[in-house]
Amino acid sequence: MDTTGLLALGAAGGSLRGLVDAYNQVVAWQAARRDHRRGPAAPAREMPRLTEYVDPLPDSVATAFHMALGAAGAAMFGLSGQITGAYAAIAVGISAPALLTQLGRVQSVSEAVTGVVAPAGAPPPPRLAGVPDQEETG
């Protein structure tokens, strides 16, 4: 699959993620209205408004970011040969925020073994051949 197709399908997956978020907000609003109607003081209180559950501007911005992350994730996975096909590109687009967050948290082997986290961009410490590190001798 070409890069344009990967980007488009990944963005489509990201937009589906935004639709799922909007759906969850509308369902929460619906449940609040239902609870209100069943409550003891239903006529006295005002019904919950949709605007208390949905905020169009931030939700639209979040959907745009989901689409960008989906497009980038599908392109990365597709161009590296880890996925093939439209369904996989859409699935990566939907799950891109979670996938990319997990990739950002991957420990290096030395961090996992020694428990020492090197600062980002720091060069590895110099090592002399045949001389054990202090951790190995202590």
Automatic annotation (TrEMBL):
| Region of interest: Disordered | 118-138
Organism's domain of life?
A: Bacteria
Name the record gives this protein: ABC transmembrane type-1 domain-containing protein
